[in-house]
Amino acid sequence: MSLSPQDLKQLFRRLLLIRRFEEEAFRLAVAGKFSNYHGGMGQEAIPVGVCYGLKPTDNTMITHRGLGVLLTRGVPVGEIFAGLYAKESCPTRGRHPIFHMAAPELGILAGTTMVGSVIPLATGAALAARIQGKPDVTISFFGDGSVNRGDFHEGVNLGAVRKLPIVYFCENNFYAKSMPLEASTAGGSIIARAQGYGLPSELVDGNDVVAVYEATQRAVARARAGEGPTFIECLTYRWTPHSTAGDREFSRTAEELASWKAKCPILRLRKQLIEAGHASAEELDAVDIDIQREVAEGVEFAEAAPYAAPEVALENVYV
Amino acid sequence: MARMSYAQALNEAHRIAMHDDPRVFVLGEDIGVYGGIYRVTKGLQAEFGEQRVLDTPISEIAITGAAVGAALVGSRPILEIGFVDFVGTCWDQVFNQAAKFSYMTDGRASVPLVIRMACGAGLGYGVHHSQSLEAWFTHVPGLKVVMPATPADAKGLLLAAIDDPNPVIFLEHKFLYEVKDEVPDGRYTVPLGKAWMAREGADVTIVSWSGAVPWALKAAEQAAAEGIECEVLDLRSLVPLDEDAIVASVEKTGRLIVCHEACTTGGFGAEVIARVVTRAFDFLDAEPLRVAAPDIPVPNSLPLEAVYLGTRERLLEAVRGIVS
Ligand SMILES: Cc1ncc(C[n+]2csc(CCOP(=O)(O)OP(=O)(O)O)c2C)c(N)n1
Ligand SMILES: [Mg+2]
Predict the structure, then answer these.
(1) Model-level pTM greater than 0.90?
(2) What is the pLDDT of residues A164-201, one digit of tens each?
(3) CB of A185 within 8 A of CB of B56?
(4) Which residues pair with B217 in a beta bridge?
(5) What are the structural domains, with CATH classification, of chain A?
(6) Does the Cβ of A175 fall within 6 Å of ligand 1?
(7) Residue located nearest, by CA, to atom 20 of ligand 1
(8) B58 CB less than 6 Å from ligand 1?
């Protein structure tokens, strides 16, 4: 469970891949190549820290934000870009935005656009693992905006009362669209709600990839041992607007954004690696160049990819 | 008269209603400070304050139920649910609560509520943001269902919906928000249940509503160039339904096509045809047709979405077919 220097370098690579991907996706969306991109820049430590230690048989269900989980779990960069362009060469073949793609072999279950509706779904996947006698754990990702929906309360309660093998994972970036957390969420604490359902819970620095990794590993171990769900709340911040469709960040101040940028998860790990003597700046820069090439190739692949043929629209309504 | 968009016309209707009637208040997600995804509620919070223009948590059950509850005690809420696709998250409050109170209580309780939702495809938003679900609502007695096709109607129908003592489902087509046209000044209402004769013609009746009205008008224009005169009827509201206007038109033309954006099966087109067959069977010179979407979810990529929206192109063929 403890991370070797090699592991840390792997984490760094994954973080940087997401960052470079996010930058490019944001740029392309703003340039009008595709519409409405929900950037996850600034939140990279969460997908990387959560997914790094998972088995491919462990399931993840994600939200509309941050394609980092897909990248970390092994969906090729080019396929994800193709998804943003709604081209055929992606797992949804252009039928639905890429973030809710399914890749069961990678443990990626589908998702849903309805904020919070993922929580009962993920709970069901965990229930089935129990019934099927499998050791698989499910990670249910959701944003702070989800916790005021009935689906959150009903889903978490069901998981808790049945002691299911699931991790309820809240990415608290303090805003749901234009709505600040304190204006929407009574009691002021998300994690207190989990405690209300009797769940062990952890409040984690979501910009510290190692802390996210370790908390997830503890939660996954508990779930696998049959001890039931854990609730993790990670504090983080999105650096970009809710989406590229329209700026609504009225209540976010420039100082707030700057203070979170100073907590960049990638610079933090980079500094750690160099200071501990695990890597040189040159080595890490070389990783960056490599990643930038991977991202550029991904974009090229997507640009060149065809749209699905019209008949595809009529297929798979039923299996 | 002023030239403005469908979204601006809706915004003006809100402003007039809120100004004239202190019982009116507006609630929804991202509608206050931000002014709503389609800018329909833009500026209202600054003008009328946070007590009457409420930004709410993402709690569709709570806000729908609360709007119904507020209506029960004499308020006139206008609730925005950003996309009709989201109504599933609060459906019980709509069809079991809002729709039933008048009947249950022998009219002692009423729910003067407007629920505004965006519907329709054409922008590449995918399966959860593009559906046309109007038929669901028409199947629930107790709900009125309104679907404006033009800026002027958007304003007049919304003001009528706000005045109505019943729960009104007000479906706005997201492809129409930016469409501009002349809109009368000040307060006026367009009565619910009164269809609009958008074009007169002797050969074929095309019944449509919402985003399909522009398609029908375009097809009618193309057909006219081929010597086929279509009458285009915009229903404006599905409940109440202007059955008389439909029947009168079919009695004149003898041919009926219903054109809607929603999927074919279980669509409201079936209801229109059933009513016409029941009341005006002897006037029909050809079997009535529905031209509507294939029974698929709405895909995301524009070329695939175009398959779902193929109704636009098939309408003209249907017009040619029905007269031949
Ligand atoms: C049930 C439901 N209501 C409203 C929306 C519209 N919506 C999409 S994202 C979003 C904000 C979600 O905020 P949060 O859960 O904090 O995630 P974040 O965007 O901050 O990552 C809203 C309101 C939706 N998709 N589903
Ligand atoms: Mg959030």
Answers:
(1) yes
(2) 999 999 999 999 999 999 999 999 999 999 999 999 99
(3) no
(4) none
(5) 5-238+251-304 (3.40.50.970)
(6) yes
(7) A176
(8) yes
In degrees, rounded to 5, the angle at the alpha carbon of residue B214 between the alpha carbons of residues B211 and B220 is 140
Give B32's DSSP letter. Answer: S
Whose alpha carbon is nearest atom 19 of ligand 1?
A176
The finding on whether A207 has its CB within 6 A of some atom of ligand 1 is no
Judged by a CB distance cut-off of 8 A, whether residue B43 touches chain A is: no
Residues of B in contact with A308 (CB under 8 A): 301, 303-304
Paired sense of beta strands A138-143 and A59-61, if any: parallel
- Is A148's CB within 8 Å of B301's CB? no
Confidence class for position A1, pLDDT limits 50, 70, 90: low
Which tokens hold the place of A16? 């940087």
- B278 in contact with A at a CB cutoff of 8 Å? no
Dihedral sign (CA B79, B85, B90, B92): positive
CB-CB contact of B263 with B311 (8 Å): no
Give CA–CA dist A216/A221, Å, rounded. 8
Given a contact cutoff of 8 angstroms between Cβ atoms, the answer to whether B294 and B304 are in contact is: no
Task: Read off the tokens for A299.
Answer: 């974009």
pLDDT, mean of residues A140-153: 98
The answer to whether residue A245 scores a pLDDT higher than 90 is no
Ligand nearest to C-alpha A143:
1
| Of residues A198, A132, A127, the one with CA closest to residue A160 | A198
pLDDT of the residue at A249: 77
- At residue B131, what are phi and psi to the nearest 5 degrees? -75, 160
The full DSSP string for B46-101 is HHH-TTTEEE--S-HHHHHHHHHHHHHTT-EEEEEEEEGGGGGGGHHIIIIIITTH
What is the distance between the alpha carbons of residues B190 and B153, in angstroms, rounded to a whole number? 7
Quick one: DSSP state of residue B311? H
Instruction: Tell me which residues of chain B, numbers 63 to 122, contact chain A at a CB-CB cutoff of 8 Å.
Output: 85-86, 88-89
- In B161-202, the DSSP E strands lie at 168-173, 180-183, 196-199
Largest distance between two CA atoms of chain B: 60
3-state secondary structure of B281: helix
Q: Indicate the pairing of strand B24-28 with strand B2-5.
A: unpaired
* Residue B129 is a catalytic residue: yes
Please, what are the domains in chain B?
2-183 (3.40.50.970), 196-323 (3.40.50.920)
Distance A247 CA to ligand 1 centre (A): 15
